[in-house]
Amino acid sequence: MSGAQVAAVASSPPPSQGAVTNNGLPAVTKYGTHQPISLAEPTEVDSAVSERMMEELDDEYPNETVEGMTHRESVLRELERIVMEWMAETGTKSGMPEEEAKRCNVKILTLGSYRLGVVHPGSDIDTLCIGQPHISRDAFFTTLVEKLRQHESVNDCVPVPDAYTPVIKFKMKDVCIDLLFAKLVRPLEDGQNPEEAVKHEEVLQNMDEKSVRCMNGFRVADQILQLVPNLVAFRQTLRFVKFWAKRRGIYSNVLGFFGGITWALLVARVCQLYPNYAPSQLVSRFFRLYDQWNWSKPVMLCDIVDPASMPGMSAFKVWNPKSNVADRQHLMPVITPAFPAMNSTHNVTESTKRILLGEFRRGNEVVKNIEVAKAGWSEVHEPFPYFKQFRHFLWLEILAKTEEVYQRFNGWVGSKLRILTKQLEAISGMIIHPNPEQYDLRGSDADWPLGCGMFIAMAFDREQGAFAGQTIDLRPAVSQFADVIDQWSEKDLYAGQFVLRLKQIRGAQLPTYALAAEAQKQWSRHKRKAEWGPGDQPAEAAVGGLTKKARSISVTSLARDVSSIMSDHVADSLMA
């Protein structure tokens, strides 16, 4: 593939069926401003390989069952009924005539993976409540929360109004739901379909920033579905890629990897470039494309709309590296298709970029082996051997007394973890590898019923400036992070109900709950390998950046008690 092909990123709506060029020849349908790289159809062999790939995936990452989807649909209907009732009550209390309040349109829209059609047992449902102008965000996070908590089928209802994307989290009939809120500026006309109305940019005029962010969760998913040529192939490929990303430890927008929407955008772009390919071919091209990608160029599904050309839209910030210095600093830009265009990967750091590139490279190499019958598809998504790959770790435990406190404090800590990782990656001679998984404590701490453990691995590389006898000091990075965590606005409200523990440990000191979780991941792998014949086991592909380690480096950064620089809300368990 040429560099020009790899850099082909923009797209535009496809021409109508039957269109012709100026010379009278049939026009090639474009799912982008560039022509597809290939219009080849899959062979029977390609289709058979895809079927085998999906069969192996189904064994470990199955789709939701028909019964499960029926249950989810009933939950969404019940949720919409509750919200409609709440909106009518809110309108009546504000002085609106009862009949008019009942007529106000309301719609619960789905977004994220559920809207994209990639649903698995146990996965949550991202939803959006579209509120008429008389419904306030304050009412959404107070009176609606009260109504939900009173419902017999709802539990663990936690409002998080101060999040970057404000949300109510709860379980309804054992289905986890994230409910967002967007407030319309102008009321919908009688009979107007809310779902269709919000697809148009005009609905965003003069809308508040938080509502725009929430609304675009729906609009982006809808645009992706409109811009891919084959929904079945897209969904099957996305299922594979999501499972691979989760198993390899690179599925987390908050921690600086890629989140669900970014993986969907990357898969969608591959589908545009190879519109007729079978899923196995798309997976192969996915790894090849992004292993070779020039990341100074953004991945985009369509042209970016200039807000200056849209009346009433000039206030919206659109991703534009030519005029915005911050946008030029983005390391792996993947741009959302709905207006206003945003970079979905702004959290990526130098460390997570290195890890992502290594995983794209590894995936490409394994797929090459599959194509010559030297590996199986399950090898692509073998779990990353995190605790075997490294010897030094920074161990964090986020603990709380109640579900509400845990959700809120966990969200606060998670939103600030990039501060810690960026400080750590700036230390000369050391490279880090954050692990996005939050390990369940499995009842290991009787004093704290709710919590999770997280880890940041540390390694030392001569090419990064490490040398024998070097002493690595982590105290400045950890202390700064502790100071930021101590600024939590709700720490006094929940005093004594939460704690953050940090500790530098070696591999031999890893907690049992983390090792047990990793052992469960590896179980199926060992079972498969036991079934292979002699010589069938493909070697583990090496991930770059962890070679030439310096020896005899001591990590003494956490040698002294730092309670003097941390409040009581952050445990003083930082020690070597």
Please supply descriptive tags for the structure shown above.
14% strand, disordered C terminus, disordered N terminus, 11 strands, 576 residues, alpha+beta, 19 helices
Brief summary of the model shown:
The protein has 576 residues and is of the alpha+beta class. Helices cover 40% and strands 14% of the residues. The chain has helices at residues 3-6, 44-60, 66-93, 98-103, 112-116, 137-140, 143-150, 194-197, 209-227, 231-247, 260-273, 279-292, 325-328, 350-371, 377-380, 386-389, 403-425, 475-485, 512-531; strands at 107-111, 125-131, 154-160, 167-172, 175-183, 392-400, 430-440, 450-460, 471-472, 498-506, 554-555.
How would you characterize the overall build of this protein?
With 576 residues, this protein is of the alpha+beta class. 40% of the residues lie in helices and 14% in strands. The chain is built from 19 helices and 11 strands. It has helices at 3-6, 44-60, 66-93, 98-103, 112-116, 137-140, 143-150, 194-197, 209-227, 231-247, 260-273, 279-292, 325-328, 350-371, 377-380, 386-389, 403-425, 475-485, 512-531, and strands at residues 107-111, 125-131, 154-160, 167-172, 175-183, 392-400, 430-440, 450-460, 471-472, 498-506, 554-555. The strands form 3 sheets. It has a 5-stranded mixed beta sheet with strand order 1-2-5-4-3, with helices on both faces. A 4-stranded antiparallel beta sheet has the order 7-8-6-10, with helices on both faces. A hairpin with a 6-residue loop joins strand 3 (154-160) and strand 4 (167-172). The radius of gyration is 25 Å and the shape is globular. The two termini are 50 Å apart. The model is unreliable at 1-26 and 528-576 (pLDDT under 50).
